[in-house]
Amino acid sequence: MSQNTTPNANSPSAPIQPSSKGTAVAPKLNSQDMEMDNLPSGDATPSEPDIMQIARVGDIVAMEKLFESSELDATYTDDEGITPLHWAAINNQFAMCKFLIEKGADINKKGGESVATPLQWAAQRSNYYTVNLLLQHGADPLISDAQGYNTLHISTFSGNVLLVVLLLHQGIPVDVTDAFGHTSLMWASYKGFPQCVDLFLRWGASVQATDEQGFTALHWALVKGSPQCILKLLEYGSDRFAKTDTGKTPAITAKDLNTINAWHRALKESGYDEDGHAVTPWWPGASFFLKDKRGFMNKFLFLLPIPLLWTEMMIFSYLPIFLSIPVALAVGFGFQWITGQLLEFAPPDMRHLHRTPWLAGIFAASLFLVGVGWILTVLPATFAGHPVLNFLFLALYSLTSYFYAACMVFDPGYVPKLNGIAEQKAVIDELLSLWKFDESNFCVTCMIRTPLRSKHCRRCQRCVAKHDHHCPWVNNCVGVNNHRHFFLYLVNLIFGVLSFDWLLYYYFSELPKSGSPNCILLAEPICAVVSADPYTVVLGIWATLQLTWVGMLIFVQFVQVARAMTTYENMYGIQDGSASSLVSAFTSTGAPLDPNHPDATTPPSAAADPLGTGRGAHAHKHKQGFLKQWGRLLGVDTFIETATGRGAATGKKMRKKSNPYSKGMVQNCRDFWCDPAPVFGRRETGDAMLGGEKINYTEIYESPAAMSLGLGGSSGRRRDGYESVAGEEV
Hints:
The protein is mainly alpha-helical. The protein is 48% helix and 4% strand. Among the domains are: 183-279, Serine Threonine Protein Phosphatase 5, Tetratricopeptide repeat, CATH 1.25.40.20; 281-356; 665-729, no CATH class. Helix 1 (49-57) runs antiparallel to helix 2, helix 7 packs antiparallel against helix 8 (161-168) and helix 7 (151-158) runs parallel beside helix 9 (184-191).
C-alpha cells in the first residue's frame, strides 16, 4: 500500500507520458476486464510538448521560465481539457502540483476521455500525498467522471487502503454510489481486497445495499471468490439469500461463476451449512454454549487437555509398549474429533486449534498434573529426608504458576486507541506533513499512529508496544508490559523442572522395589524403577521434555535482552523510524516529493528495502508446512537463526546497521532487570527503561538519537534525558 517509488519504464509506476488520448477510462463493473490500466501509453507526441512534458517531469525552474517567456500559464488547457496539473498529479510530482496551484491552476478542471479531475488522476495512481495536497486546496472528491466514478470509487479500484482511509476521513459518505448504483464496498468485494472490505464495513458501509441489478456486495464478492471477503461480509450480517432482479441468490451466483468452493468454505467458517442455514449444535446443553460461544470455547479448550494428558499418561504407564502406542493414538484422535466437532460451531476466528487456548491448556494441564503428582506421591515419600528441596520446589512451582498466569492475563502493552474520527484525522494529517503516512507508521485496523517497536497482532487484534512475539503457550502477546514476567516464567520453569527431577531421583531411590520385574526392552534396574511407579516415571519424563523448547526459548531471550532487541526485530530487522520515511518521500520518477527532504539523494531502490533483507515488509507471510509450523510454535526457527546469526537483524547484510536501542550489554540488562516497575503486579502501560531513563513505548515515534535532539513525540513534545549514541552494530 505504499507509494510507488522505483523508477522503471516497464512498471506501472513509471511516469505517464502526455497523450492526445487524455486520461484513463474507468471500468464498468459488469465488464470482464476491470483494471485501471487504460492509462496513456506514452507513445504519442503531444501537440503542446513543452508545458505538459515539464509538468510530467516536475521541472519547476523550466516551468517558471516557460511562464515568463510565453503567454502560457497554469490555467493552460489542451483540446481535451487536460491541464498541466493533471500530468503533475498522475506522475506524483508533489512540488510541481503545489507550484501550479499557487499559480492559479483550476483544481477541479475536468479533462481527458474520462472527463476526470487532477484529483482523480492522482487517485488512479494511489499518489496519496498528492491527493492530500489537492484536497487541502479545495479539490472536490465527490465530483464524478464521465462514467460516474468519484475519487473514492477510483481509489478502491487499486485496493490502496491508506488512500481509502485518507478519503474517508474527508467526510465522504461511505455508501456513495457510482452511475450504476455500485458502492465502494461492492467494488472492494468484487476486486477481492479483504482489507478494504474490512475497512468499509468497520466504517459503517451497508451490506444490504443493492445496485441497479439488485446485486449486493456479497454477490460481487462471489465473482472473484475471495474467501476472506465473503467471510467478512457474512460476519457483518450480509443476506445469504438475497435475490437479484433476475432471482439469483449468492449460492446460484457462486455456482454460475465456479466459486462454489469458496462460498461453502466461508459458510462453514461462519457457522452455516452449504445451504446457508445456521448449524445448530446437537449435544445436550447446547443452549448454554450458544449464549456465549467465545467464552465457552475458551474455557472448554483450556481445560480439555487435563483429562487428555492424564489419560495418555495412564495408557503409557499401565499398558504394554506395543499396545500403548496405538491406544494412545486412538485416544488422541478421539479427543481431536471432539474438538473438531466443537470447532464447527466456534466463532470464525477460532476455527483452528492454534487460534484457541488449546496450546496454553496443554502447558497448564502439565503444570497441574505435576503439582498433583508432587502433593499426592512425591512429597509424602521425600519430605522427611529432604524438606529443603521440597520447599525449594514449592517456591519454584508457585513462581512458575504466578508468572505463567501473569503472562496470560496481563495487558501486554496495548497501544491506546484514539477517541473518535477527529483525533484519527489529526494523526493522519500529522503523518502526511511528516512524510510518514505509510504502513510502518499507521495501523489501518487500529486507526492509530504506530509507535516504534510496536506491531499489530492479528490474533489479539491490537497494536502491542515493544512487541516481542505472540506466544500461543500463554495465549497472549509478549510485549513491554509482560516481557519480564515471561522471562521469569521461563527461568522458574527450568529450575522447577530440575528440582522436580532431583526429587524424583530421591523418590525412586528410596521407593521399595517390587518382585522380579518382567521387561522386554529395559534393563533390569531401570525396569524395576518403572514397575514400582510407572505413572510417576511417565510424568517425570513429560516434565523433563519441557526443558527442550524452554531451553531454546530462554537462550534466545537472554541473547535478545543483552542486545536490547525483541524477537520480531531479531527475525525481521530493526526499524528506527527512518526507513518508512524514505519509502514515502519519493515520486514514481525518483524525484523527492519534498524538495527539502534530507534524504532526497538516497536511491529509491535502497529505500524500498532499507533493511537489506531482499524482501518486502510482509514477505515473511507465507504458508507453512506442518513441521515448520510446529518448529515455529516451539521456537526452533528463532533459536536456529539466533544461534547461527542468520536472523534479519544479525545476518551479514545487517552488520553495518546500528541498533539505536542498545546502550551496551550491561546497561541493556540493567534496563530490563532493574526496571522499577513491580515484578509482582501490573505495570503502567508502555513504561520501560532505556539507557537508564524512563520512557513510554506507547508514545515513542522517533529513534533515541532523534529524541535527544527534541524531535520525538507525536505532537512535538520534547523527551529529555537521551543522548545521541552510536548504538550496537548488529
